[in-house]
Specification:
Length: about 450
């Protein structure tokens, strides 16, 4: 790559995950020239499609919800037909245990929050008195706002949610939504997720299962859109340093070249952002906040069975096992491929891939004893999948507007009001793009 100096109107975006791509699409839509620099060979960050052992999968199994309005709007901007990209279905959680009766919670076709309230009263696997107690407690929880954060487990017990529902429904939901163990997870963030999903519109609680791999659904269409609008997305473009001079703007140094621009969006993970800001004295105090944001991993174990192997419903929750959620990827065009998700830290991190696969195979045989031996299996570990959404984490999450003029921050760990989700990443990119547009129009 030879040195390149962009025009004064351009915006440099460092990082082509969902945050960076969302910012780039929004800016390109406004005819603002953008250049996106991605260190990896393929864009998409922690939510992209890839091929493993000849099978098309994602680098982590994702489930969206109907409350992801920014993500759905972005897909619409890219010309994606929601019905072809996503299977939309009412909330239906089937939680199974290998040693006791499972739990099923399904919402009804009623306005929110009645859809959840009546669904809770119909929950199987829970005695009637506990269902009524849960309904009263959940009604209070859906109105809960407090400046004092609490662990999710403490918050649920405070609202007298029955233990069986905590263990069988809410703890798994907490792990799925916040990627943090309930005994340390932020009750404020968890309450926000519940309130956004169940207290506004019925469709917000819908489950959206991707019909395509995540690159085909979002990453590739975003790249095409950016390039069709005159923007650029460069891969294998690892940024080594960031420099700022008031009269010249920003200089971004790569291994074999450099770029300059008056506006830069850092759509990079928190630890990368810290490294890039190390050479900017004006950001040292600001950057120390990021050191308080820890990471949590997500492991996805993929098992390929004969194509006729299937499960009903399309996914289930797994209780009292290492695996937490099981998805049939038949919908994505890979029949026979099953994905087992394990969120957050745990003993499984001490197992190598072969031992973890053996453990998961044994657990699946408890739920589906008639399934044959898998033909193949592999593990994808995202060691820094999300930030740790622990109690009090909100005070360390930075704004999208950084202390230097023209420098912006995107990523699911910034102040979006959401945990580390695809929706949070998209929202962060939109925040940066809208601020840049407003600054140009002012």
């Amino acid at each position: 790559m030879t040195p390149c100096h962009d025009s004064p109107s351009s915006v440099l975006i460092i990082g082509a995950g969902w945050a960076g791509l969302s910012a780039a699409v929004t800016l390109a839509q406004q005819k603002i020239p953008v250049t996106v620099l991605e260190a990896a060979l393929h864009p998409g960050g922690r939510a992209r499609g890839l091929e493993m052992n000849g099978v098309r999968v994602d680098n982590g199994q994702h489930l969206l919800i109907g409350a992801y309005e920014a993500t759905l709007a972005m897909l619409h901007t890219l010309g994606m037909d929601e019905r072809k990209a996503l299977l939309r279905m009412p909330l239906d959680l089937t939680m199974r245990s290998p040693r006791q009766e499972g739990i099923n919670l399904a919402s009804l076709y009623l306005p929110a929050p009645l859809n959840l309230a009546f669904g809770l009263l119909r929950t199987s696997g829970i005695p009637w008195p506990e269902r009524f107690a849960a309904l009263v407690g959940l009604a209070r929880l859906m109105r809960w706002h407090s400046p004092q954060d609490l662990p999710v487990t403490t918050l649920l017990r405070h609202h007298k949610i029955p233990t069986r529902l905590i263990e069988g429904i809410f703890n798994p939901l907490c792990l799925a939504a916040l990627n943090t163990h309930p005994d340390m997870a932020s009750g404020q963030l968890f309450a926000t997720v519940l309130q956004a999903s169940f207290s506004q519109r019925r469709r917000h609680s819908d489950l959206l299962i991707p019909r395509l791999d995540l690159s085909a659904m979002f990453v590739d269409p975003a790249r095409r859109f950016i390039e069709q609008q005159g923007g650029r997305l460069l891969t294998r473009a690892r940024v080594r340093a960031l420099d700022y001079q008031a009269e010249r703007g920003y200089r971004v140094v790569l291994d074999d070249g450099e770029f300059s621009a008056p506006q830069v969006i850092l759509a990079t993970p928190a630890h990368i952002t810290q490294s890039l800001c190390a050479g900017l004295p004006a950001l040292q105090t600001w950057a120390t906040k990021l050191k308080h944001l820890d990471d949590e991993p997500i492991c996805t174990v993929y098992l390929r069975y004969p194509e006729k192997t299937r499960m009903t419903p399309t996914f289930i929750g797994m209780l009292e096992t290492t695996g937490q959620w099981l998805f049939d990827r038949r919908l994505t065009g890979t029949p026979g491929v099953m994905a087992v998700v394990i969120s957050a830290s745990g003993a499984h991190l001490h197992l190598d891939n072969s031992a973890l696969i053996k453990q998961i195979k044994a657990e699946l045989s408890l739920f589906y004893p008639d399934w044959p031996e898998p033909l193949d299996a592999f593990v994808i570990r995202e060691k820094r999948a999300t930030f740790r959404a622990s109690v009090g984490c909100e005070r360390f999450r930075p704004s999208h507007q950084m202390p230097l003029p023209g420098l912006w921050l995107a990523g699911d760990y910034i102040q979006t009001g959401l945990p580390g989700t695809l929706e949070g990443a998209v929202l962060s990119g939109l925040q940066c793009a809208k601020s840049i547009v407003n600054s140009k129009n002012s």
